[in-house]
């Protein structure tokens, strides 16, 4: 076990033995299959919001805050104080509502420090001018592997889990782990690794780090698509369940087997519907591009690039 995973392991065990466990509320966005979470410390009411969604009707070019407003209502009605807005990565399937939530509720916006690489790749793809700094300065904190933070009295530690994108982070918060786009439910498998900067081999290694954590560890996933034969959406599982039965990466699947499977499967997947609007906005920490001189904001569609 590497030193950061063993620190995460110790933190999870401490949390399981103590009375202080994070309270977790999920918000599922069916149009993008995304799960957002509000995590809070029952003792202090301190909270973090993970992977929020700004509704977006692409055909109309219209954003909406219905999903984010549901989170605001939950935070207010439970008397929570938002300390963190955490992104597990720059999502390619939905726009983040983090700036809108930050404006309403406060809190520091954080993501993995490798976001700078993502900003460089996509800054070029979108041919963004020098006003876009590509230094992560849109965020209040950039996390490296093994960084620690607190939500009230609850301890948290970050794990850098690249592969789906270079910047993916998993957040270990008390006895729960927010896996971002690494693992999905055991019957659905794993995240794709074919976006710019993605790497199936890295994804396998990242997942193996997560699966070294104690087997009772609660895992909260970022997406669910209902596997064949399952009628309900699901987003919570355990390390033990993933080790035993994840269809792509259960115990015994080798790195080479995983890479062959992932590469073959990724070649059959089309780009997510909202990748161009999502990445364009999320590389800026969820901020929409500045308005042009007529007061309207525009998104770009690079042709024949992806
Ligand atoms: Fe993703």
TrEMBL record:
The lineage of its organism: Bacteria, Pseudomonadati, Pseudomonadota, Alphaproteobacteria, Hyphomicrobiales. Keywords: Metal-binding. Signal peptide: none annotated. The keyword Nucleotide-binding does not apply. This is Glyoxylase, beta-lactamase superfamily II. The keyword Thylakoid does not apply. GO terms for biological process: glutathione metabolic process; hydrogen sulfide metabolic process. It comes from the Bacteria. GO terms for molecular function: metal ion binding; sulfur dioxygenase activity. It comes from Hyphomicrobium facile.
């Amino acid at each position: 076990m590497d030193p950061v995973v063993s620190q995460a392991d110790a933190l999870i065990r401490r949390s399981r033995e103590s009375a202080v466990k994070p309270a977790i509320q999920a918000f599922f966005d069916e149009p993008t299959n995304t799960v957002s979470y509000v995590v809070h410390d029952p003792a202090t009411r301190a909270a973090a919001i993970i992977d929020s969604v700004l509704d977006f009707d692409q055909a109309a070019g219209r954003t909406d805050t219905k999903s984010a407003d549901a989170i605001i209502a939950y935070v207010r009605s439970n008397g929570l104080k938002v300390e963190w807005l955490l992104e597990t990565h720059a999502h390619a399937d939905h726009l983040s509502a983090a700036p809108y939530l930050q404006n309403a509720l406060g809190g520091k916006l954080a993501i993995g420090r490798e976001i700078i690489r993502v900003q460089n790749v996509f800054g070029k793809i979108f041919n963004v001018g020098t006003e876009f700094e590509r230094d992560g300065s849109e965020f209040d904190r950039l996390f490296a592997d093994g960084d620690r933070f607190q939500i009230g009295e609850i301890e948290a530690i970050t794990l850098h889990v690249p592969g789906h994108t270079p910047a993916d982070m998993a957040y270990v918060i008390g006895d729960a782990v927010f896996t971002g786009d690494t693992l999905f439910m055991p019957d659905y498998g794993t995240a794709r690794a074919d976006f710019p900067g993605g790497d199936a081999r890295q994804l396998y290694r990242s997942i193996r780090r997560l699966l070294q954590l104690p087997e009772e560890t609660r895992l909260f996933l970022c997406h669910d698509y209902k596997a064949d034969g399952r009628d309900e959406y699901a987003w919570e599982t355990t390390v033990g369940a993933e080790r035993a039965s994840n269809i792509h990466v259960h115990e015994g699947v080798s790195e080479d087997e995983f890479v062959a499977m992932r590469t073959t499967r990724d070649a059959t997947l089309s780009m997510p519907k909202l990748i161009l609007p999502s990445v364009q906005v999320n590389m800026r920490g969820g901020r929409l591009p500045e308005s042009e001189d007529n007061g309207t904001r525009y998104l770009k569609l690079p042709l024949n690039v992806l």
